[in-house]
Write a structure and sequence with these properties.
CATH architecture of the largest domain: Alpha-Beta Barrel
CATH superfamily of the largest domain: Metal-dependent hydrolases
Strand content: 25-35%
Helix content: 10-25%
Order of helices and strands: EEHEEEHEHHEHEEHEEEEEEEEE
CATH class of the largest domain: Alpha Beta
Number of domains: 2
Structural class: alpha+beta
Number of helices: 6
Distance between the termini: 33 Å
Radius of gyration: 19 Å
Number of strands: 18
Shape: globular
Amino acid sequence: MRTISLQTPGKSPEQLNVYKANLHTHSTTSDGKFSPQEMIDKYSAAGYDVLSLTDHGKHNDLSLYDHRGMTLIPGMELHPDGPRGIRWHILALNITRDIPEGIPEADAQSVIDMINRVGGYPVVAHPYWCGFTSAEVMSLKNVPAIEVSNSSCRYIGREFNMQLWDETLDAGKNYCALSVDDAHRPRDLFRNWTMLCAKSNSVSDLADALKAGNYYATQGPEFTRIHFDGTAFEAEFTPCTTAILMSRRSTGRLTMVPDFEGPGTTQVVTSMKVDVSDFPRDTYFRCQIADEDGRMAWSRPFRFPAEEEK
């Protein structure tokens, strides 16, 4: 069992289990190539602990399937009208049939409010792929997360959403970020996932982890320790050749990048510690790492206690 040590200001370090999850998946219930059971079988065989079937506007009755030892989180993807004639793609995680199939989706904020009202977790999916600006994403209220990477968006060069994410963080939003496959077909499988840090793999504990922001996004690298005590940020992780503390504008801090001191000087690191006591108090910071194959991982964003967005 993977574990991680997490600490935020004012709290003692907490040791939590870590569960590998794909939280954006499609099946033949909507426009996927594989049946729900086939998707469950594939992700279980690949070593995943958690899967959410998020078909377009349709529920999956999870009681009908063999879970293959995984925790299945109920979900759906909804598509309200958006600005400039673009439809939103909103993941509704940990929802029940309290959200009916085929609901009117004209008002995005009403859809998000409905997800929150039934205890779900709304996520803005692949905003760069859709063509949304950071300002348009920020127009939605009570959204805790966006996708930072998405396997099925890579075919037109729009797999990543880091710049948009940083723009929203710089503007004072505090979105956490998921990494997902958005799997429809074989080529989408097993490229991006989210690591949920929770007490157990029960649906309720995993839902609590989402709502607390106790997770990180990855394509391979794994964090084993993420601590922020109000003055220093520390992280430990599997071997990487890139480790950067991203922050507002030019405030970030470098630990390592390939060819750090010129060609042939690449080093492997497994930890970073950054004194952030001199950072602007209204800034954010997040850890971004990559291994020697270029596979990336992203921590949740952090802020100084007085600056955390409510």
